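Need tokens for this chain, all 218 residues.
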Amino acid sequence: MPSKGATLELAVLGLLQESPLHGYELRKRLNLLLGWTRLLSYGSLYPALKRMLRAGWITEVTTMSTAVSRRQRIVYQITPAGIEYFASEITDSGPAAWEDENFNMRFAFFSRTDASVRLRILEGRRSRLQERLDRARSLGSGSDRYQTELRRHAAESVEREVRWLTDLIEAERSTQDRGTTKRTPTTPKTTPKTTQKTTQPPTPTPAPVPTDLSTEIS
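Here are the structure tokens for all 218 residues:
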């Protein structure tokens, strides 16, 4: 399973492919990407950026913020090596891509993922959640009212996500089916040959024998 740092690095690379960003804007977009359940601190972001600089996946560019303050700002840009690394990692559709935080990040960049990879990740995520749901149902209801309510709330949340994933999977399959369905070639209709009757030339009528007017009838 990839570490949270590796997931964060992949998310940074994905955002930097859209446009270069400075630290403040990058942190804001990462918080939107990762969701309200996790607020990213600068204490987590900047060590990740330093690791990525050492790996050669990003570079720093110094710019001036405004014409008035003339403050220098560091903008981060992705490198060709970073683009290549992101492209290779984003195709991973194994169990690590099904986990909570990693799945959300992968889903955010689904538009850059092949359809077959998207479908495997969605199906894997659904199977993982179905396992959790089955375990939760097997526990039954306990004697503590609040613990029971908490388990019920968690189970309902998982059920909603399973239904959501099922809808997405059906949509992906439908799209793939439309894309792979080849139009059946139609055989051009052949006009049946009509048998032409051979028209025989008319038989010439024999010319009448001329009467010899010089011969007298006795």
